[in-house]
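[step 3/7] inverse_fold.run input=structure_tokens len=119
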């Protein structure tokens, strides 16, 4: 079983910055993709950013140029640096990790961390 622990959410004014962190622990053989999703009230959960084991990244169009995803493979951790935050970035942010716990694959979700951007 793989557990994810998130941190770093909070309340910030528009134009400010926050950094989210997510650490995975448990019986992990390997980690493939790590990512961040968000869900605003009344909306579906959407992909914000994702990074593969090789370091390839992709971002939602709405956050390109403002958010940066990174990972530390030694710590089984993924980070999301969020700059120039806007009120529309307000949502619960969820960490997502996909990998293998030999011999099976797994996908785990974090508990979610609230990000609130005031105008």
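[step 3/7] decode complete -> sequence:
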């Amino acid at each position: 079983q793989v557990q994810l622990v998130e941190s770093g959410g909070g309340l910030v004014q528009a134009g400010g910055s926050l950094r989210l962190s997510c650490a995975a622990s448990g019986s992990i053989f390997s980690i493939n993709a790590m990512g961040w999703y968000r869900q605003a009230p009344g909306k579906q959960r959407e992909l914000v950013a994702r990074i593969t084991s090789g370091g390839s990244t992709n971002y939602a169009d709405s956050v390109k140029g403002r958010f940066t995803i990174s990972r530390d493979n030694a710590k089984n951790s993924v980070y999301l640096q969020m700059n120039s935050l806007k009120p529309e970035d307000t949502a619960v942010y969820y960490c997502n990790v996909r990998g293998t716990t030999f011999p099976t694959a797994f996908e785990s979700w974090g508990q979610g961390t609230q990000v609130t951007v005031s105008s």
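[step 4/7] annotate
The chain has a mean pLDDT of 96.
DSSP finds no helices and eleven strands in the chain.
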